[in-house]
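Justification of resources, computational component.

The compute hours requested in this renewal are based largely on the per-chain cost of generating structure records like the one below. Each record pairs the submitted sequence with a full structure-token output. That output is archived, and it is also reused by downstream analysis tasks.
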Amino acid sequence: MDSEDAPFGYDAFRRTCPSHAVLEMLASKWVYLTVCALRRGRLRNGELARKLEGITPKMLTQTLRVLERDGLVRREIYPVIPPRVEYELTELGQNLAGLLSQIRSWAEEHVPDIKDARARASVNHNDGNAALKRERGQGRS
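The structure output for this chain reads:
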């Protein structure tokens, strides 16, 4: 392992490396979106659920537990009835949120480019399938 490739002594390309597991956790779209949603400050579970369109209650709970376990989110429970629970990013979570916001900005900026590339790939794929069918049809008697 080259120290330039792994300046912190970890190598995410190695399956057994702890940094590999961190990247696996970060690869979840719900982890990503939850961290970005919490960047502006504390939110309650219901507020997060409304912000993260499409997330199921079970997935939101699992995501928040993972983020709390990994030190990215802090959960605060208020002793009131009904119970009130709020979530906020820790300092480590805020650090990550800055990077994820840059990725989100890049994604939003390049949606047209990605859509165009997908459309071209779809046309090329369909043209290739049509040519393959013609070839197969010509080979039959």
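The first helix runs from residue 18 to 26. Residues 74 and 88 are 5 Å apart (CA to CA).
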